[in-house]
Amino acid sequence: MTDYVAPKELIQEVVQLAKRKSELPVRDLLIRGILAGAFLGYATSLVFVVLSQGLPPIVGAILFPVGFVILVLLGMELVTGNFALLPAGVMAGTVRATKMLRNWGWVYFGNLIGSVLYATLFYLAITNWRTGNGGAVADLLKQAAQKKTLGYMSLGASGWATACVKAILCNWMVTIGAILAMVSRSALGKIAAMWLPIMTFFALGFEHSVVNMFLIPSGMMLGAPISALQALLWNLLPVTIGNLFAGAVLTGMALYATYPTEKIAATELASEPSASQNERQPSFAAAAGLQ
Fold first, then answer.
1. For 5-27, what is the mean pLDDT?
2. How many CB atoms lie within 10 A of CB 182?
3. Do the Cβ atoms of 111 and 39 come closer than 8 Å?
4. Do residues 70 and 39 touch, judged by C-beta distance below 8 A?
5. Averaged over 34-56, what is the pLDDT?
6. Considering only CA atoms, which of 124, 141, 111 is closest in space to residue 50?
7. Which one, of 208, 195, 174, 184, lies nearest residue 81 by Cα?
8. What is the pLDDT of residues 72-84, one digit of tens each?
9. Packing angle of the helix pair 209-221, 26-52 (nearest 10 deg)
10. CA atoms of 235 and 256, how far apart (whole Å)
11. Roughly how many angstroms between the first and final C-alpha of the chain, as a whole number?
């Protein structure tokens, strides 16, 4: 007996999950967003430790999905995944656009806090509480942070557009990973399905906004000559736009368009009673069939 979930049923589960996510209180959006940002920071720093030991980049790409797997199985909130899940709910009529934007805003803010928090702790760890320079790991982080900001800035408009395109290519795979987390009923099946697209985007060197929320601040703390404005204008802004477009259009809307569920009328949605506090807080793992 297979535990595989067929695409039609998979998108139905995506729509149900989108509704649950849209109803989470701000407190949970922030806490889960902070934890998700920190977990991705862990995975990214692991990659740089691997690279600093002279191992091939593909080894880092193979290991990077551990952070994504952890945050998904624990039901955390990652804005780049929600860029695909919530639009599917809007198209199905189960999620209001205002609730989608509310989710995106608070989760993005939470991801940023968690990423910078972990970046600060990682900086203090590798510099022995600011008494050292961080060694080879620090050098690689500074180089990467400058490449992702000053490198694009040196190309002008072409650099900005390149960052945006790389972000589209990145989150197309990331959001496929978020949806494939529900393609199996078993934990092992979910992990394997998620791992493949996440490893692919990282190996190809594309741009992920939450990963960069850790990487660029880390480089700045370690001495990379990057201003906060440069980080925002030449990376986070174009990368967030690209991530959003890929998630919403190329994954969420595209998959819903070809596997539509029965729509709920706007009047029915408006008259729907509010969910209780307990009903509004099921985790991603529960929604995906882990509980």
1. 97
2. 26
3. no
4. yes
5. 98
6. 141
7. 174
8. 999 999 999 999 9
9. 60
10. 30
11. 19
3-class DSSP assignment, residue 279: coil
Give the residue carrying structure tokens 């494939």: 180
The DSSP code sequence of 151-177 is HHHTTTHHHHHHHHHHHHHHHHHHHHH
Residue type, 38: A
Q: By the 8 A CB rule, do 107 and 115 touch?
A: no
CA distance 45 to 79: 20
Question: Which of 211, 215, 216 has the alpha carbon at shortest distance from 233?
Answer: 216
What stretch of H or E contains 95?
Answer: none
Looking at residue 78, the DSSP 8-state letter turns out to be -
Alpha-carbon span 255 to 8, nearest angstrom: 9
Place of tokens 């500074």: 142
**Confidence at 220, pLDDT banded by 50, 70, 90:** very high
Amino acid at 268: E
Instruction: Count other C-beta atoms under 10 Å from residue 27's C-beta.
Output: 10
Give CA 154 to chain center in angstroms. Answer: 27
Q: Tokens 């694009």 — which residue?
A: 152
Phi, then psi, of 224 in degrees rounded to 5: -65, 135
CA angle 234, 238, 241 (to 5 degrees): 160
Q: Which of these, 221, 219, 234, lies nearest to 143 by C-alpha position?
A: 219
Q: What are phi and psi of 4, to 5 degrees?
A: -70, 135
pLDDT for position 129: 98
pTM equals: 0.90
User: What letter would DSSP give residue 129?
Assistant: T
